[in-house]
Write a structure and sequence with these properties.
By secondary structure, the chain is α+β, with helices and mostly antiparallel strands. It has two domains: 180 residues, Nucleoside Triphosphate Pyrophosphohydrolase, CATH 3.90.79; 127 residues, Nucleoside Triphosphate Pyrophosphohydrolase (Alpha-Beta Complex). Helices cover 25% and strands 28% of the residues. It has five helices and 16 strands. Strands 8, 9, 10, 11, 12 and 15 form a six-stranded mixed beta sheet that branches. The chain has a five-stranded mixed beta sheet with strand order 4-1-6-5-16. Strands 3-2-7 form a three-stranded antiparallel beta sheet, with no helix packed on it. The chain starts with a helix and ends with a strand.
Length: 362
C-alpha cells in the first residue's frame, strides 16, 4: 500500500470517527429536546403515554380493581357560607356518624365519574370536580384521591331519602358539635378551605390516558447554590424520563428510591429522595385489569444529606461539590437543563413545591 493511499485511509477513518461523534451528539441533542418538550407538558398538567416501565416491573402486578388495587374518591364541597357538605353514614360500623362524601371507584369508572356518582348517591347533589387537593396512599393497594368540587344541580338528601348509601346530608359550619366517623377529614376540609381561598397549586385533574400498572414517572432533579439544575434520564431505547412501578410492600413514592438505588448505589445513603408532589396523573379505568393503573408524573428532588457518617458511624463534616452524585449504572445519565424558561419553572417548583401534594400514610 502506498503512503498516499495509507494516508487517505487514515484520513477517512478520522472523518468517519468525527462523523459518528457528531451524529451521537445530534441524537443526544434531539433526544434532550424531546425530553424537554415532555417535561414542559407535564409541568402544564398534561400527560404523556406510558410506553414502558424501567424499574420494578418484575415486583409489580397489573392493577386490577377489587383484586390488587383499591381507589377511593373523596369530595370537599363548600357552599357560599363556606360550610362543608357532610353525609351521615348508614353502615352499621359507623352508623349515624358524619363524613365527607366518599367511596370506592367501581370497575369501568374514571376517577371523576366515581366522584360524581358518590356525591349523588350520598348527598343528593350533582357536582363537578374543580381540582385534586391531595393524594393519600398506603402503597398501590390503597390510594385516596381527594377532590375539591362544586354543586351543579340536584338537592340536599334528607332523612326521607335514607338508604344503604347514607342516611342524609347536611352543610356543616365546622363549629357545631358533630360526631365524626374519623378526624382525618378535618385536614382535608382545611386543605380545601385554604385552596378555595388562595389556590396553592394549579388546577390538577386526571388525564384520560391508560396505564396497566401503578407507576411513578420521575422528573428527578438535583440543584445547587448556583441555581444549576440537572435531570436524571435513561439513555435507551431513546433518552427518556425514568418510570418505576409501585410495589405493594412500600409507599407508591418508594419507586423514586428504587431508581436512585439502581442509578447510583454508592451515593444512595448520602442522599434524601424527596417526592415533592404531582404535576399530573393519568388514569383511564375502562378496561378492567388492563387500564386500572395510574401514572403519577412527579417532581422528585435529590438532596444531599448534610449529616454524613464514616464507616465507624461517626459524624463527619459534609463538603458538597455542587455537582450531582456520579451515575454508576450505564443506563442512566444526568443532563443539565440549559433552557432558561424550563430551568426557572423547575427551580420555582422545587423551592415552593406549588404542585399537588402526595402523602404516604405508611
Amino acid at each position: 500500500m502506498s503512503k498516499q493511499s495509507s494516508s487517505s485511509q487514515h484520513s477517512g477513518n478520522g472523518n468517519s470517527t468525527r462523523s459518528l461523534i457528531t451524529h451521537d451528539m445530534e441524537v443526544t441533542e434531539k433526544g434532550w429536546r424531546q425530553v424537554e418538550e415532555q417535561v414542559e407538558r407535564l409541568l402544564s398538567g398534561q400527560g404523556s403515554e406510558v410506553t414502558a416501565c424501567d424499574v420494578g416491573l418484575e415486583q409489580s402486578k397489573p392493577a386490577t380493581l377489587r383484586k390488587t388495587v383499591t381507589y377511593i374518591v373523596c369530595a370537599v364541597i363548600f357552599n357560599e357560607k363556606e360550610e362543608v357538605l357532610m353525609v351521615q353514614e348508614a353502615k352499621p360500623d359507623c352508623y349515624k356518624q358524619w363524613y365527607l362524601p366518599a367511596g370506592r371507584v367501581e370497575v369501568g369508572e374514571s376517577l371523576e365519574e366515581a366522584l360524581r356518582r358518590e356525591v349523588k348517591e350520598e348527598a343528593g347533589f350533582d357536582c363537578e370536580p374543580i381540582t385534586l387537593l391531595l393524594i393519600q396512599e398506603q402503597g398501590p393497594q390503597w390510594i385516596r384521591f381527594n377532590f375539591l368540587a362544586k354543586v351543579t344541580g340536584g338537592s340536599l338528601k334528607g332523612l326521607s331519602a335514607a338508604d344503604q348509601e347514607s342516611l342524609q346530608a347536611s352543610w356543616w359550619d365546622r363549629q357545631s358539635a358533630l360526631p365524626l366517623r374519623g378526624r382525618d377529614i378535618l385536614r382535608l376540609i382545611d386543605c380545601g378551605l385554604k385552596y378555595h381561598q388562595d389556590p396553592c397549586h394549579p388546577v390538577t385533574l386526571p388525564v384520560d390516558l391508560s396505564c396497566r400498572h401503578v407507576v411513578q414517572r420521575l422528573v428527578l432533579v438535583f440543584t445547587n447554590a448556583k441555581e444549576q439544575i440537572w435531570v436524571l434520564l435513561i439513555k435507551a431505547p431513546v433518552l427518556h424520563l425514568p418510570t418505576a412501578a409501585a410495589v405493594k410492600t412500600h409507599a407508591v413514592t418508594w419507586a423514586a428510591n428504587m431508581v436512585v438505588q439502581e442509578a447510583m448505589p454508592s451515593a444512595y445513603y448520602d442522599q434524601d429522595v424527596n417526592t415533592l408532589g404531582v404535576f399530573s396523573l393519568q388514569h383511564n379505568g375502562r378496561q378492567h385489569g388492563k387500564t386500572d393503573g395510574v401514572c403519577f408524573n412527579t417532581l422528585v428532588a435529590l438532596v444531599p444529606d448534610h449529616v454524613q457518617r464514616n464507616e465507624d458511624g461517626e459524624k463527619v463534616e459534609w463538603t458538597g461539590t455542587g455537582q450531582p452524585p456520579p451515575v454508576e449504572n450505564p443506563r442512566y445519565v444526568w443532563h443539565e437543563v440549559q433552557k432558561q424558561t424550563l430551568k426557572e419553572k423547575l427551580l420555582e417548583k422545587t423551592k415552593n413545591t406549588s404542585i399537588l401534594p402526595m402523602h404516604s400514610l405508611y
